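Sharing a chain and its predicted structure for anyone who wants a worked example. Both blocks are below, sequence first, tokens second.
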Amino acid sequence: MLALRQHDLTVCIEQVHKPHNVSAVIRTADAVGIHEVHAVWPSERMRTTISASAGSNSWVQMKTHRNIAEAVTDLKDRGMQVLATNLSAKAVDFCEIDYTLPTCILMGQEKTGITAEALALADRDIIIPVVAWYSR
């Protein structure tokens, strides 16, 4: 299982403040083979809900950043394209992305979404149409 980890795919969560949501991201990352999640916390410390993320905390590393500029710089220095989940006129369906390139998917805060600063730093906006999966 560890040999199948996707080292060229990651996620970055910006200002997510609910521990259960952070845990859900960690569990999902683990399920698809992402070994590292990046985060910009809304406060000095954030803890995931241990019971909610169960063993995933053992397999998925959490890398924290002081601000979104630091996070995106780190990711781009690794050669990653940074894709912002954002409902905008220029957003494309996530299926149209070339994932053979190292990729980070940036997700924003529960209530307000991704900050304007993060959107300016991202390479592209994407839409992940969850409802489409239910209609198949």
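Comments welcome. The chain has one domain: 2-134.
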